[in-house]
Design brief:
Strand content: 5-15%
Largest sheet: 3 strands, parallel
CATH architecture of one domain: 3-Layer(aba) Sandwich
CATH topology of one domain: Rossmann fold
Shape: elongated
Strand order of the largest sheet: 1-2-3
CATH class of one domain: Alpha Beta
Amino acid sequence: MSMTDLIAAARVSKAWPFQEAQRLLKRYPDGAKPDGSPVLFETGYGPSGLPHIGTFQEVLRTTLVRRAFEALIGAKPEDGKTRLVAFSDDMDGLRKVPDNVPNQALLEANLHLPLSRVPDPFEKGHESFAAHNNAMLRDFLDRFGFDYEFIAASDMYNSGRFDDALRGVLRNNQAILDIMLPTLRAERAATYSPVMPISPNTGRVLQVPVEVVDADAGTVRFTDEDGTVVEQSALGGMAKLQWKVDFAMRWVALGVDYEMYGKDLTDTGVQSGKIAQVLGGRKPEGLIYELFLDANGEKISKSKGNGLTIEEWLSYGSEESLGFYIFPNPKSAKQLHVGVIPRAVDDYWQFRERLAEQDLDKQLGNPVWHLLRANGGFEDSDAPGAGDSLPVTYGLLLNLASVLGAEASEDSLRDYLASYIGADRITPELETLIGTAVAYTRDYIVPTLSKRAPAANEAEALKALDAYLATAHADASAEDLQTEVYEIGKREEYGFENLRDWFKALYQTLLGSEQGPRMGSFIALYGIENSRKLIAEALARG
């Protein structure tokens, strides 16, 4: 695949990262900013809590658009045509104490201080609560290999690098108020100011009316918490902007060209876009993505704890499957719970295996094409890893582990696999899934298993299957075993209306589940004699 072919295909692709990138290309038809600086992508993070799956999806999706844009302009990551900034808003005041951190009293005593000035409740040597969470964020992003630059608001405010942008806010204070006040409740509007000064007495971020004394000098006047009228600079870390104003200021000060955000920030995007225009800049491109839902279709809430953490996903599935699940339809809500993981793992590998055989236009619509390049860039050759496949499905591994029940372990699954496919075909990816299959089965499958007794016609069909297995060669192929399973289900004397009823009977009587694998593959993996024991146990329940 040549770069020329890639550019041509990318410019007509309907895959959403390319659709987003094409909108950005309209912003810069030559593929570059007028001043020659890199096109800037940004993701934002509030370090009042720990990084989570929402952080991952935003950085991943933004990275996918970044790589798609590079494809459109014929650039590679090392060319430096784009940048990705992960911005931490650690100057925001600590508004409430999170439930999932230690030393709650310590945080309670430091409410409303900038997060970068709140002591670290984890007591791990970080200079502040924000520094601890920022370090976690960077470790989190590095774990997935994201290519990004980290910027902390505290560094920008305290060093004075935001000072010119802050002067712009002060000069346009009334114009910003004209945008914001009509959107606020009367009570909130009474104390609202675009600039939140930091009290010289308590160090807290104050929500008080502010008078601009001298915009060029950065001087403001306000009444402190103790009733004292204070006149001080808003520069050099002595003030923090309101969230929507801060969002806009950041876009203009950094020159952000692309940033996506959740549906819950739709109004923020509208108002921040207007403020950015007042400040002499323009709103970046970006999509508004839908939020995750739990298994009951309710919005995921950190306070409710009804979500799914990164650690939970990686305990039961792979990194690639998480990216694959997040990829499609960012404008549609997704249910995020443990039950979606097995299907996501198998679907990822099906799409990956298919990739090498696809024409270029189909490849660009394949999620795996984007995921393989997310942190590796674009090559003139086929995608690294395209065409790879797993020798067994994750679903089959889970069924094997569920049959083993309490005896299931990584060693036992590995032994079965070595006999079935050969030890040399147990790849690192499969090793990962062996461990997650044991954990998923232990926590979510075994507690729900219930093997029922077969009906009379089902019992006769099971006897026929057992009779066949009694004469089958120990090394019979999965295909031959599957063919015989099909043939038995088709026989009129067993009275199955369709093969689906036969397979459902097999799953419910032998495995104790409503769904299951290709039985030929399962029998070959589990072993003929072991499978005959399952049949005998089922018949004994009849």
